[in-house]
Amino acid sequence: xxxxxxxxxxxxxxxxxxxxxxxxxxxxxxxxxxxxxxxxxxxxxxxxxxxxxxxxxxxxxxxxxxxxxxxxxxxxxxxxxxxxxxxxxxxxxxxxxxxxxxxxxxxxxxxxxxxxxxxxxxxxxxxxxxxxxxxxxxxxxxxxxxxxxxxxxxxxxxxxxxxxxxxxxxxxxxxxxxxxxxxxxxxxxxxxxxxxxxxxxxxxxxxxxxxxxxxxxxxxxxxxxxxxxxxxxxxxxxxxxxxxxxxxxxxxxxxxxxxxxxxxxxxxxxxxxxxxxxxxxxxxxxxxxxxxxxxxxxxxxxxxxxxxxxxxxxxxxxxxxxxxxxxxxxxxxxxxxxxxxxxxxxxxxxxxxxxxxxxxxxxxxxxxxxxxxxxxxxxxxxxxxxxxxxxxxxxxxxxxxxxxxxxxxxxxxxxxxxxxxxxxxxxxxxxxxxxxxxxxxxxxxxxxxxxxxxxxxxx
Length: 459
What we know:
It is built from 11 helices and 25 strands. It is α/β, with parallel strands linked by helices and 459 residues long. Strands 1, 2, 3, 4, 5, 6 and 18 form a 7-stranded mixed sheet that branches. The protein has a 5-stranded parallel sheet with strand order 8-16-9-10-11. The protein has a 5-stranded antiparallel sheet with strand order 21-22-25-24-23. Strand 1, helix 1 and strand 2 form a beta-alpha-beta unit. Helix 1 packs parallel to helix 9. The chain is globular, with a radius of gyration of 23 Å.
């Protein structure tokens, strides 16, 4: 088959690209390919499907009507992942052998789970899951329902989550509503190591405990236990992470944990194999120009698999966040359909996550590692009674980043301060102690925003 626009992927970047293509080219043929059979859905909603507060249908970010209105040919489901790209021939071969000839191709295949080689971990155990896709969420629910049906409604369901980052934390939240016990193991000395410091993480862990989740920072596993035929995980050994005089970590076995649900949520990596094998230039991710074109002719990339220029630090690395994927997808779609006015020149991290409806965490910009803290000035405000933890990272008279736990007001304005490089000297002295407001911004900046609004641009 032949198509004008071939899109590999069906999430934020892919859908944003299709929207842009249709604005410029209402009739050009579009084919989308995805190994999942579903409409595009919000990946952050996977945990809420496990939790039971969202269904497959309510998790959709694109309804059936969208695909029909955009005249999209869908090749969705098992066997429909792209596995080989021949840039010279302008063809992509799918897993089931289907070959598609394209004029322009976008690869927006996102991330895939990374799981360390734990000893004894079976590939296809019925009760072992990763936590990135809707299939895994539905699989968790189906397995627990089957377990209760076979063993009885009172049979205790015990879950172990390996990984205490954002994905592992959200997995634990969903499981807490389905399981009798949930234990989260994290090699690092605190949960959400990449987001919170010791104090902020301790406050979050207290909230997790209130909801029946047992966080175990500084502990992990090295051996998975299974039944005789390896079809079921039955538990794991428990090791404590310690540090020698040279600062290097080592582990010491301290016990074991039983479980009948195992979630591996250690990390993700770019799903870029099809581009790498086709010869696309790569760094820590696929390298693209300002129009999201790869080094391969007529091949574009967007989302988690691309290398992003960090406009605050100057670094280059993948940025696996929804707003970034959406922005890149739109630029790629514009360029693929002939609109070269829109460009993507880099970004910085902006993220939002909530736990159990009583903890919200908004983060933006630079979040320095422990060994980088001496390069920045940190302003910290903590109210344990309200479970509020607020941190601002500053350098050279500028705001570089923030973390707002349970104090979301003004987050968008703080982000503007970072993005526009507004000097802190031009803001009131107390804008960190209380939520910032629009009136706190310099008059010239407010007037510029008003002009943008009147002109029909972004206000």
